[in-house]
Specification:
The protein is an all-alpha fold and 85 residues long. It has three helices and no strands.
């Protein structure tokens, strides 16, 4: 396919630089770079890694054991309630 493109100055400069680096004809440089960019764009983006940031609640392991599930549920319910002052 034959077409005419108007390239931004920075893109043209990068293509020229790549063309000089490889020594290949400009047509091959443009096709290779376009192919590479299009394949990269078609790949799904990797999701950002989720990292849990723990914090010290000040509650000891012994307190967790003695409180049991009921107390923990109460604490969680209170934590989800809006603050009132």
């Amino acid at each position: 396919m034959r077409t005419t493109l108007t390239l931004d100055d920075d893109v043209a400069a990068l293509l020229e630089k790549e063309n000089l680096r490889t020594g290949e004809p400009m047509k091959q440089t443009v096709n290779r770079v376009l192919r590479s960019g299009l394949f990269q764009a078609a790949k799904p983006a990797k999701p950002k890694r989720f990292v849990v940031k723990p914090f010290d609640t000040g509650i000891t392991a012994e307190q967790w054991k003695t409180w049991g599930e009921t107390k923990i549920e109460e604490i969680l319910e209170q934590a989800e309630m809006p603050l009132t002052r």
